[in-house]
Amino acid sequence: MDILKSGNHTVRIDQGELVGYSYGKFELIHQKGQRGWGHSDTEMFPIIGPTADTAYRVQVPKGNAIQDQHGLLRELDYEQVSVTENSASYRKSYTAGTVVKNSKYPDRSPMQYLIWPYSFEFTKTFELTYKGLTVSFEIKGEADMPYMLGYHPAFNLITENPRIEAGEHEITLGEVMQAGSRALEIPNACELVLQDQCRITVKTNGFDNFMLWTEVPNMLCIEPVTYYPNTKSQQFLHEGFDYLSREGKLYTVHIIPQ
């Protein structure tokens, strides 16, 4: 377990997963074992959304891509790169064509193995200051590699009526739960505010949209995404790809409690 501290902020990281963020007396992150989800954060890459409708095949310019929901990155292990008092960095690497076991098989998926025809390196970095936590994602790999990226943190809810503010719009937890497994789309947004046990602002750079998801009243996933996959038939999932430049790409998420 890696622990970062700054002022009254304390962050706990377990093998690259954000498992705790204490701000004063408040725990901001959903805890494993509580109702709702068996994780506290994860990444969706190189695919966001379900692929069952396309028989788990994804159309890409190069080779064969077999992907389960939200991609294969979550099946890889992070390697620790560096840790200081206020920062920690972790990396996952993938070689094109490597067969990866699908942890959802056989109970939740018929696909035993996943594969992607591009090599990439994915670095996740946490930086904690007296203002809040910045989580950054650096993607390096083959030029013109298609990809989608989503960050999937789960926030702990305490009050009965939390509010989500998206610009001038206010969203209730009931609306999020009503959206079900598709998740509620918040398009063209780079900042949301969760008003619950305290006020948490989530700001992003590089992401252009959010998804909101939960099935329980004690947890809310606020997910910055490059593409919302549920507006069209999954036959057109490939239309949501960005393409990697030779220089790579950097995305950031700022979590600011007050």
UniProtKB/TrEMBL annotation:
InterPro entries cross-referenced by the UniProt entry: Aldose_1/G6P_1-epimerase (IPR008183), Gal_mutarotase_sf_dom (IPR011013), GH-type_carb-bd (IPR014718)
GO terms of molecular function: carbohydrate binding; isomerase activity
Pfam families on file: Aldose_epim (PF01263)
Annotated keywords: Calcium
Known cofactor(s): Ca(2+)
Gene Ontology BP annotations: carbohydrate metabolic process
Subunit structure: Monomer.
Protein name per its UniProtKB record: Aldose 1-epimerase
